Amino acid sequence: xxxxxxxxxxxxxxxxxxxxxxxxxxxxxxxxxxxxxxxxxxxxxxxxxxxxxxxxxxxxxxxxxxxxxxxxxxxxxxxxxxxxxxxxxxxxxxxxxxxxxxxxxxxxxxxxxxxxxxxxxxxxxxxxxxxxxxxxxxxxxxxxxxxxxxxxxxxxxxxxxxxxxxxxxxxxxxxxxxxxxxxxxx
Length: 186
What we know:
Layout: E1 10-14, E2 20-26, E3 32-37, E4 43-49, E5 55-60, E6 66-72, E7 78-83, E8 89-95, E9 101-108, E10 111-118, E11 124-129, E12 135-141, E13 147-152, E14 158-164, E15 170-175, E16 181-185
Antiparallel strand pairs: 1-2, 2-3, 3-4, 4-5, 5-6, 6-7, 7-8, 8-9, 9-10, 10-11, 11-12, 12-13, 13-14, 14-15, 15-16
């Protein structure tokens, strides 16, 4: 059986009314994609590869706003995100490049304001972020399993902590800009 090959820069599938419903092609940077369109010509779903090799699926509503995405980056991270009616991503779940799970909520504009992750040692951590995307408060479990609240300055440096010490006793500690304790209460 002889195989036939069709070659084109872009391929469109039309419905019975002559409207484009599926488009397969290359974007301006030669990255491949395919898009599915509704009867009004609005892209409702698009799958593509970016020039760096990342893959993604975007699903839009009938107003053209992206409401859900699924992506896989070349660094190994993966994400599933959900947007509001204005197309702003409000919630995101995924795996970081180190395979640790993450969960984020965007509640002020499109800024990440809170994120749940697993710390390096595998314990759960909740972070609150400022408008610049820097973590300012971390609540979680230390490596030994004791609860701890960490307050960080604008540069991300630890300045205060409240929690339980290794022996289970309450601990409050303030640090200077050199990360040295200036006051401790046990």
